[in-house]
What does this fold into?
Amino acid sequence: MKRPAAPRRLHIDWTRCDGRGLCTELLPGVFDRDDWGYPLARDGSREPVIPRGDLAEARMAVNRCPRLALSLTTRS
It folds into this structure.
């Protein structure tokens, strides 16, 4: 029997992020912005789960982050 795929999470390397906000624009259902433009997970987590329907946008955010601060992970 095939196991269901682990949920994908978006990790932010805070030592690289400078709050440009591209990820918040590509993933408005996952992120909001703070007063300085840094992403805030809407669910309050450090590594928000990416809904399946937003996985393409999450990959785009990872690839287009100007500071290379994003990565996708399967950690639980």
